[in-house]
Design a protein that fits this description.
Elements lengths: L14 H19 L12 E20 L10 H22 L11 E9 L15 E6 L2 E6 L2 H14 L1 E2 L5 E10 L5 E7 L7 H13 L4 E5 L15 H6 L9 H13 L3 E5 L7 H6 L4 E4 L8 E5 L4 H17 L4 E3 L8 H5 L1 H10 L5 H18 L3 E5 H5 L9 E4 L5 H10 L4 E3 L14 H6 L9 H5 L1 E8 L9 H5 L2 H10 L6 H17 L18
Bound molecules: 2-acetamido-2-deoxy-beta-D-glucopyranose (NAG) (5 copies).
One 2-acetamido-2-deoxy-beta-D-glucopyranose binds next to loops.
């Protein structure tokens, strides 16, 4: 843009305009005095910062492995993270304003960020991943210490959030000390790629935003009634017949790409293959898997849940889940088990006589539990652990110890948490965080105000709560609106699960509004919280 001609300034300016210009200058000076400082999200366990501020220059800024690190430069996961964070901190500026220019008279300190890792570079994060870190920012070296690479990743995110631009636009960081670790180990986002296909790019963008919020589990509800986009090597017909189209599939290569992108950000990917209900799409490519219903006298044959009385069902499941257990490195597989429709089972004469032989009476929950038990055995034989939706527990299926129960029903979820943990099972809470339910206003406040441990129970029971998930079901969501619908609403859940108990909504609002602007600056189309604008420090 051309600079404005000098005519606009100087003695030629009419008096009222001069007064206005002076007022504007004052306003700017006022803002300079009240630099907002950093907006950390989620709030760390402990932060102390001093008024001593250091000014950074991109040319004088290095992130390197500390001398005491055992990981060393061979830790490609850290090298990748250095590159990313350098870019988040300075990249936008260079991109939009050409080369960084030093303000005349402002002194720039050199800052070296040194990362000290107390261990080798791990390959995949797991449920007990150590994400703790300490960060000591002091001229001329900022030291980030972590036992594991996962903590180093979280610490780099915090470090990048500590940097702000002062009123001259200079990158600034105050000397500070941060000690941090998450309150809950399982902090997830559920995405649903069956109701609508989500492009791989959209999933990767979601993983980026998750890392900005220190979320660490992608719960990938990959298939459901509507479509089967997962391309199986053992059963290619499942997706060739069951997906929306041949371009609406996740090839083995796509899945590997998601897994690697997630790994580099310390995010676990837990696939969900929901059975025996929610499986209409499976039936298209796998004959005799679903129960034929005799109830509805329609001209065409209709099908219900997976047929639990055929041996072929379990042969199929064994082969299928063997593949899944190899493709997805995480220790856990989500088996679903929610909302099983009993009407079709009840209509089928073979199933009726099977029920008689087993002595189940008319209790189809028992038949469901019979199925689930066999499936859980298959998963255990593959050396994996299972997560199930709460109905599986409610229907009294025999669960292996350590099976995680996900509490999703909104009515009295505290009572459900109490029951699940009283029975000795670990639990994940998602009931209050169904982000697909939208309304006018600031629903993030409701998500933020949930206190997951506010149920009646012993200390031991509370320790069984692993964390929670923000769920974005896909009936009304595809790649066009997933990002603004998730962010920053899911950020509220992220802080609830990472930060210490307690809340100050006023204070959180101000921080979250700026965190949202930071996400926008980093390429995440997060929607606004309310009226307002992003200031130049934030975008
Ligand atoms: C950071 O340093 C500036 C400049 O000295 C000071 O005004 C501000 O209060 C400090 N911020 C914090 C959070 O300590
Ligand atoms: C590195 O190790 C030395 C010797 O054990 C110790 O004195 C020093 O404080 C360590 N430095 C950091 C940054 O941890
Ligand atoms: C998780 O990973 C760490 C580090 O790689 C390992 O020491 C630990 O045994 C793993 N835990 C589980 C439950 O797999
Ligand atoms: C199914 O397997 C069970 C147990 O292995 C066996 O007893 C039964 O005969 C089999 N049924 C059929 C129809 O093959
Ligand atoms: C909440 O935060 C606001 C803004 O930072 C502050 O003025 C207020 O005193 C805080 N309220 C409580 C109860 O701490």
């Amino acid at each position: 843009m051309e600079p404005r001609p000098a005519r606009a300034r100087g003695p030629g300016l009419p008096l009222p305009l001069r007064a206005l210009a002076a007022a504007l200058l004052l306003a700017q000076a006022g803002r300079a005095a009240g630099d907002p400082g950093p907006a950390l999200w989620p709030r760390p366990l402990s932060v102390s910062s001093s008024p001593r501020s250091l000014r950074l220059s991109p040319e004088n800024f290095y992130i390197r492995h500390g001398l005491n690190s055992t990981a060393g430069p061979s830790c490609s996961l850290l090298q990748e993270a250095f590159r990313r964070y350098y870019d988040y901190i300075f990249g936008f500026h260079k991109w939009h304003h050409g080369h960084f220019r030093v303000q005349a008279g402002s002194q720039l300190e050199q800052l070296v960020v040194s990362i000290v890792l107390e261990s080798q570079c791990d390959s995949f994060p797991n449920v007990s991943a150590d994400e703790s870190y300490t960060l000591l920012v002091q001229e001329p070296v900022a030291v980030l210490k972590a036992n594991r690479v996962w903590g180093a990743l979280r610490g780099l995110e915090t470090f990048s959030q500590l940097i702000y631009r002062d009123s001259f636009g200079t990158f600034t960081i105050n000397e500070s000390t941060v000690t941090d670790s998450p309150r809950f180990p399982h902090r997830g986002i559920l995405i649903d790629t069956s109701r609508h296909y989500l492009s791989v790019k959209t999933i990767l963008r979601t993983l980026d935003a998750m890392a900005f919020n220190k979320l660490n589990v992608l719960h990938w509800h990959i298939v459901d009634d509507e479509s089967f986009p997962y391309q199986s090597v053992s059963f290619p017909h499942l997706s060739s017949e069951g997906s929306y189209s041949l371009s609406h599939v996740y090839t083995p290569n796509d899945v590997r790409m998601v897994l690697e992108y997630a790994r580099l950000r310390g995010i676990r990917v837990i696939p969900e293959f929901d059975t025996p209900g929610h499986t209409q799409s499976w039936g298209k490519g796998q004959k005799d898997l679903l129960t034929p219903c005799s109830l509805f006298r329609k001209p065409e044959q209709t099908f219900g849940p997976i047929n639990p009385i055929l041996n072929t069902t379990y042969t199929f499941l064994k082969t299928f889940f063997k593949e899944i257990s190899n493709v997805f490195p995480d220790e856990f597989i989500h088996l679903g088990g929610d909302e099983v429709e009993f009407l079709c089972w009840a209509s089928n004469p073979q199933i009726q006589s099977f029920m008689k032989t087993k002595g189940y009476g008319g209790d189809y929950a028992k038949l469901e539990s019979f199925y689930i038990k066999k499936l859980l055995d298959i998963i255990a034989a593959l050396n994996k652990r299972s997560i199930v939706w709460q109905e599986v527990f409610d229907n009294r299926a025999k669960l292996h110890p350590g099976t995680i129960v996900e509490v999703w029903k909104s009515e009295d979820y505290f009572e459900e948490l109490r029951k699940v943990t009283a029975a000795g099972f670990p639990a994940i809470l998602s009931a209050p965080w169904y982000l697909d339910l939208i309304s006018y206003g600031q629903d993030w406040r409701t998500y933020y105000s949930v206190e997951p441990l506010d149920f009646q129970g012993s200390e031991k029971q509370k320790q069984l709560v692993m964390g929670g998930e923000a769920c974005l079901w896909g009936e009304y969501v595809d790649s066009t609106n997933l990002t603004p619908r998730l962010w920053p609403r899911a950020s509220a859940v992220a802080e609830r699960l990472w930060s210490p108990k307690g809340k100050n909504i006023t204070e959180a609002y101000a921080r979250l509004a700026r965190h949202r602007c930071r996400m926008v600056r980093r390429g995440i189309a997060a929607q606004p919280l309310f009226s307002g604008h992003c200031s130049h420090e934030d975008t």
